[in-house]
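Notes from the pairing session

We agreed to fold both candidates in a single pass and log them together. This is the raw record for the first candidate, unedited. Please don't reformat it; downstream parsing expects exactly this layout.

Candidate A
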Amino acid sequence: MNVRRRHISAVALTAVAALGFGTLTACSSDSAAAGDTGTFDVVASFYPMAFLAERIGGDHVHVTSLTQPGQEPHDLEISAKQTAQLEESDAALYLKGLQPSVDDAIGQSPIATKIDAAELTALEEHGTEAGHGEEHGDEHAHEDEHADEDGHGHDHDHEGGDPHIWLDPVKYAEVAEGVGKAFQKADPDHAADYRKNTATLVKDLKALDQKFRTGLANRKTDVFVTTHAAFGYLAERYGLTEEAISGLDPDTEPSGARVKELQQIAKEDGVTTVFYETLVSDRTAKTLAGDTGLRTDVLDPVEGITDHSRGEDYFQVMEANLTALRTALGAR
């Protein structure tokens, strides 16, 4: 489990509980509670799942998110109000292993349609180093477990592997296809629209995949450094190697040995940038960058969209990530 511990005030927790479900875009209503909308009500665990539900469901669904905009999804604890609303919904879309409280709530819920994104594509194990410069030849070219070559071992304790599948457009497209089929089965009256919307979304994701392939084709280095080991699937897809400062918990201070190792990696592999993300502190990244004479930049794991995001939706933020990677890797 990618656990991150942060101290949250009682006032903040009360505010989150009072807010209940976070509403999303035009097909969500600020006043409509799940189960009381006259549409196909879908509860999504966090932004990447909500985005799929909205794009595939279109006008036929009412989507609510368990995770508030700007809230770190791994920190989520389900409130009693959210649990009650969940039970009134038609479907739940989540990614098992990412948010334990969500897994428990959905597991105990009588909700008719439970869609686990982790079952819709192959998950892999990733540690502090991922990618190893290998590229997928097809959707399931890498279903083996990777052993770290630098002796770090795997510090991922998600059952079944790394959950960050949405950061690989190809895997995300696989999940989209599975979600589309589940919607068609659960709400057959609108199956044709769900099928059409799914096809459009998959086409857009394939186009994004091609942008990454083309944009990263001619680069000076394959190695990038991040605070959070979220980009293992992306690294493997495009032949890159992700080196994470603190593994799966970006709030953990790296050991002196790890910092020294990363300094050596940066020197040998022409690393120019230390990446951090928008929902957690940039302190560790800036400390390492300052010690090694590198710059810092954002590589967004797209776990939520806020005013600080470099874009208004998944596609815009992923394209911003591509731009950041191209600069850091010296792509021409």
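Candidate B (folded immediately after A)
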Amino acid sequence: MNARRLRTSLRGWGGVGAMAVVCALAAVFALLLPVTQSREDGGSDADGQGVAQGSQARAEDCVDPEDQSLAPDSGPQDGVNVQRIKRLGHLTVGVDQNSYRFGYRNPNSTGSAKLEGFDIDLAQAIADEILGTKDAEVHFKAIPTNERIPAIQRGDVDMVVRTMTINCDRLDDVAFSSPYFETGQQVLAPKKSDIKGYDDTLANKRICSASGSIAFDKLKADRGSVIPKSADISTVVPNQLDCLVRLQLGEVDAVVTDGALAASQAAQDPTVELKGKPFTDEYYGVAMKKGATDLIRRVNQILVDYRKADWQKSYNTWLAGTLGKGDGPPAVQYK
């Protein structure tokens, strides 16, 4: 248990949710929902604070990255970035459409399936509060794992709500809200496999991870020390769900991904299971453009209110069946 867990008594989750679907669903991976491409530059906040003052800590100075976001009351919440969203009349959000129970299209729905899930509920709540109306217009844009940061930096989206872990390296490239979910990396493998977890049993095993993911970074850093050098980590795919398909096809022996996503995959496919305990402590946050300090503060204020009741309601709807009762949203500290 790390220092933060001792300090805040947060839970350690053993799993995450990603949808195990038939390969035919791959045909919709590339489909993007309607989105307005044109937008103004994120720019600095209207309160006069420059990026150096208002942006979050750089990775080299970073300790407890989940605690590096701006407090809601640290400055204006209605600057140029929030005003631009109001003027456009919609919020553009990067999401996943293949992560079961977080952001996905239900294959059992008839016709054009609506996006559903825990992340989708949060994105809608943020839009409702910023735009001041129930069921406010949200332009969801489906993006792969490795496009989350570029999409924010290019201004393709106002924010990303897509099981995105807050970490020190990413704080160099984007800003994050306070954490809204806790998880950790785990190994997913066939039940019949002799793999026991993130350990020596991965020797000579083919391991899949998603490009731009924490899992991929960990595998590179740990190969030859925590896990055997003989572990083959060369299978790197754009989307985390692609790893499950590779596992089902027998092209890899194991998947390393967020435990929460892996748990839902195991629930969908009775032939696979989580192996070992989570080997990291991680927190999901809403990612936004650096320097958009008014928007960061506004989202953090929305999260303060969202955690009081709506968080648990959404959790019960989407995740309790896979992850159990849980202990509620993670505790929050600000920069």
